[in-house]
Write a structure and sequence with these properties.
About 45% of the residues lie in helices and about 10% in strands. With about 900 residues, it is an alpha/beta fold. A 6-stranded parallel beta sheet has the order 10-7-11-12-14-13, with helices on both faces. It is globular.
């Protein structure tokens, strides 16, 4: 019977007959399998399974729930949709861009040898971008339907080259590539090396070139888009997040660390495009295997939908002729290091090494070496039709994120020096031979005698290529990338009256600064800006005393709560909700920081001024996510990072890897990060009020790192005069308590949990006839930046301005003892700007498990050591007799050791 007759006969069967037929088929298959297993062994069973899979693939079917599929395109030729654009015109455009990107880098290095730049990355990814630019990426004019696109950082020259054709950049701008400080071409702007929103705030949206940060940020941007929609802060839309990344970038933990989140939350608004050019900086990504197959297993295992774009159209005919699977099995045996050789050395190598059996040789009968060379270059990631089919399938897919694994050639079209060679990533200049080959391969109409000038090529503003790409961008909503700030400020933030209750202190009640923050946050959530507040915690909400907030506003979950929590009915019940406000990320500071960036940039992307409060265990904060903090700074993120349980000695018992004495020092690095270490609720309230005003009232591009501790003590009311105190809190230093009486004077600076120790030291010193003024040093970074600005103004501008720290201490005599729960380097930042003896006390060294009292004795930062340091400075000045120090050691009970804490 024919296939048609068999299908007709099957269709005539009744349900009972079909059931009986299926049972008989099942029995026959199982009996056959049992025979093979018992007689020929499990290895033969595996081989049969593989052959069955092969057969299915050859018939155009992909079995579900496989971690790995054959090394073929996921979408076969017969299922490719018609291409909607002008293939010839788009091919010319992509080659013009490839040429101009290469010329930009080469010219920059000709003018300034060693200025750097990358030619080969864009050469490999150009078609992947162009299909997106011409048919998929929706720009800012699309409003809330716009897409967010994370560009592969090293490909920035190609994005500039496209902006040049679009008329957004001039040739003078291209001439200033990587020359931002002193642009050599007059009339042009400097172009940043990589995507940097801080440096090009009208152009780039996302900093991506620090490997791994683009992918994790893209995942959390896609999730935050859903968060905004589920909470009613943004209308639902079909907007997508596209992230372009390299195959070698998957070696970074941040690239793969959040893949499960994207799948678990069914983020079908997220598309990864992996540029599998098989090479990283030093050589092959996976020379001895196939990185595409490895990544397929990784993504499928994480729950993503995988689309492979491996082979270009020139392979279609050979694949169709391969009825017995010989080519398919050769594909499976191919490794990336071998594949790289074919791209580098061409058709002769392919004939000899790849088509190495009689069956394979028969497939290529009649093909010349030149035709085989074209075959080596026919990779899916350079084939517009294959890419379009993948992109269309990706945007139409529902229920999970999508990754497209596209096989490309590094340095594609860039001549023999760069194309597919191990040195490709480092190539900054092209030889004359390279230029000739690239000109021929790309079809650029530049005369040979002009090649030495490394000329750009622009076909003219009325050329078909330029009109076409401009029409496509207009149809898709404008230029990409383009950064438009949709919220510039003007949010009605809480005023002083809102914070007034926190100015009044706690009386005899002892609380921590962490609890003071939680009380303020709870009140903010009830304010009119409360709907914009986004609390973010990496599985430490109970540690920070925030369990009541979980019940109050709920934890965000796109599926709501599908179970009854074990603590249901209590005041602190664990509440998950689709409208939940808290982002509880689990044990991932990197994920929570990516959340912070997504929430802190929503003002620009969506015009929604969300106010993120990222509360993290400070020891696992800045030192773990420092690269993401830098990205947040670059991206003009706004919001508050709270380093909770901060300080080396405030967290008793936890020990070496939990006690933070360094985050305040790490926070010095990011220029627009405002840093504070408040000791009392009123200090925190003043800082918070000012931050909300600056970021959301006035639209300033700053963000905050504030350390808060878990030590309980009474919080006093704000001293008078309050306006002067508020000014001092924000500038970094104010007089908390003036010393009374007669005698030698000293100035004690304390901050955070050590300020109460300085207050106690004031009392201890009184017993020695010494009068101490106590100051709260809320921000050494603010004091330091003000001081270096004053120094610069004097040196370069001829202005005599006293640094604020010196101005504040003016009229307050005596040496300075500055005590902190952080490294001594922190208070030492201001030493050089004071004309008096200075002693910094801090917590250099490894933490220990013990009580606060023991830890502060160990690190020499308690009240006794502060008092003793003050006495020692006075003795050095001759204002106290030496025997007073001997008496002080005994009376204060100090046991001074030879080795400092950082050496123990």
């Amino acid at each position: 019977m024919t296939e048609r007759e068999l299908k007709a006969a099957f269709a005539r069967l009744s349900p009972e007959e079909r059931k009986a037929l299926f049972a008989e088929e099942n029995r026959e298959w199982l009996e056959a399998l049992e025979y093979v297993l018992r007689v020929e062994g499990p290895e033969r069973v595996e081989e049969l399974f593989r052959l069955l899979d092969e057969y299915l693939y050859l018939q155009g079917h992909t079995p579900q729930n496989r971690l790995s599929t054959p090394y073929l395109n996921t979408i076969p030729k017969e299922k490719e949709p018609p291409y909607p654009g002008d293939l010839e015109l788009e091919g010319r455009i992509v080659n013009i861009l490839r040429w101009n990107a290469a010329m930009m880098v080469a010219r920059a290095n000709q003018k300034a040898d060693g200025i750097g730049g990358h030619i080969s990355t864009y050469a490999s990814i150009a078609e992947l971008y162009e299909v997106g630019f011409n048919h998929f990426f929706r720009g800012p004019e699309a409003g809330l339907e716009r897409d967010l696109v994370f560009f592969q950082g090293h490909s920035s020259p190609g994005i500039y080259a496209r902006a040049f054709l679009e008329g957004r950049l001039k040739e003078e701008d291209l001439e200033n590539f990587r020359r931002e400080v002193h642009p050599p071409a007059e009339g042009g702007r400097g172009l940043s090396s990589y995507p940097h929103p801080w440096l090009m705030p009208d152009f780039w949206e996302f900093p991506t070139v620090s490997m791994g940060l683009g992918p994790i940020q893209a995942i959390y941007q896609a999730r935050f888009m859903r968060y905004l929609e589920d909470r009613g802060l943004k209308p639902k839309s079909s907007a997508k997040v596209w992230a372009f990344l390299g195959d070698g970038e998957h070696d970074e933990p941040e690239t793969v660390g959040a893949l499960h989140l994207a799948a678990r939350e069914e983020l079908d608004n997220l598309i990864f495009v992996v540029n599998c050019n098989l090479q990283r900086l030093d050589g092959p990504v996976r020379g001895n295997s196939k990185v595409i197959q490895e990544l397929e297993r990784l993504y499928r295992g994480a729950g993503w939908h995988v689309i492979k774009v491996v082979w270009g159209s020139l392979w279609d005919e050979l694949i169709a002729k391969d009825k017995e699977g010989h080519l398919l099995r050769r594909f499976e045996a191919l490794v990336d290091g071998e594949s790289q050789r074919y791209a580098a050395f061409g058709g002769k190598e392919l004939r000899e090494r790849f088509f190495n059996t009689p069956e394979l040789k028969k497939l290529i009968e009649g093909l010349s070496d030149e035709e085989l060379t074209e075959l080596t270059r026919s990779r899916g990631g350079h084939d517009l039709k294959k890419i379009y089919a993948a992109y269309k399938a990706a945007v139409e897919h529902k229920g999970s994120p999508v990754v497209i694994l596209a096989r490309t050639i590094k340095g594609y079209g860039m001549g023999p020096t760069a194309m597919a060679k191990n040195v490709a990533h480092q190539v900054k200049k092209l030889t004359e031979e390279d230029l000739k080959e690239a000109r021929r391969f790309l079809g650029i109409p530049v005369p040979e005698e002009k090649l030495k000038e490394l000329p750009y090529y622009h076909p003219g503003p009325e050329a078909p290529e330029v009109r076409y790409l401009l029409e496509r961008r207009k149809a898709l909503g404008g230029f990409v990338p383009e950064r438009r700030v949709r919220f510039g400020g003007g949010l009605e933030v809480p005023d002083e009256a809102f914070f007034q209750e926190f100015y009044e202190g706690t009386g005899e009640r002892a609380i921590s600064t962490t609890m003071a923050f939680v009380r303020i946050l709870a009140k903010l959530l009830k304010h009119k800006i409360g709907k914009y507040i986004v609390p973010i915690v990496p599985d430490e909400a109970r540690t920070f005393g925030m369990e009541a907030l979980i019940a109050q506003v709920g934890i965000y979950s796109p599926k709501g709560q599908l179970y009854i929590p074990v603590d249901a009915g209590t005041l602190t019940a664990y509440k998950e909700s689709k409208e939940g406000q808290i982002l509880e990320e689990g044990i991932t500071e990197a994920g929570a920081m990516a959340d912070f960036i997504a929430a802190g940039t929503a003002y620009a992307h969506w015009g929604v001024p969300t106010v993120p409060f990222f509360i993290t265990y400070s020891m696992f904060g800045l030192q773990r996510v420092g690269d993401l903090v830098w990205a947040a700074a670059d991206q003009r993120t706004r919001g508050f990072i709270l380093g909770a349980t901060a300080g080396r000695t405030t967290l008793e018992g936890e020990g070496l890897q939990h006690q933070d004495g360094q985050s305040q020092v790490y926070a010095l690095a990011a220029p627009n990060l405002q840093v504070y270490d408040p000791a009392f609720a009123y200090e925190f309230a003043v800082i918070l009020e000012d931050g909300l005003r600056r970021m959301y009232g006035e639209g300033e591009d700053v963000f905050y790192y504030i350390t808060i501790e878990n030590e309980n003590y009474p919080h006093p009311p704000m001293p008078e005069p309050r306006e002067e105190v508020k000014r001092g809190i924000l500038k970094g230093l104010y007089l908390f308590r003036k010393g009374e009486g007669e005698g030698p004077r000293v100035q004690l600076l304390g901050s955070g949990p050590i300020l109460p120790q300085a207050i106690k030291a004031q009392d201890l010193l009184r017993d020695f006839g010494v009068v101490a003024d106590v100051w709260s040093a809320t921000s050494y970074k603010a004091l330091y930046l003000d001081a270096i600005e004053a120094e610069r103004e004097r040196r370069l501008l001829g202005r005599a301005r006293t640094p604020y720290v010196a101005e504040a201490l003016k009229g307050h005599e005596g040496p300075v003892v500055a005590a902190t729960d952080y490294l001594k380097a922190l208070p030492n930042l201001i030493r050089g700007y004071l004309d008096r003896p200075f002693c910094a006390l801090g917590t250099d060294g490894f933490g220990r498990s013990d009580t606060r009292e023991a830890l502060r004795d160990f690190f020499e930062v308690d009240a006794r050591h502060i008092a003793y340091a003050a006495l020692a400075l006075l003795a050095e000045e001759g204002k106290l007799k030496g025997e007073v120090l001997e008496e002080a050691r005994t009376r204060l009970g100090l046991s001074l050791k030879e080795a400092p804490p950082h050496r123990r």
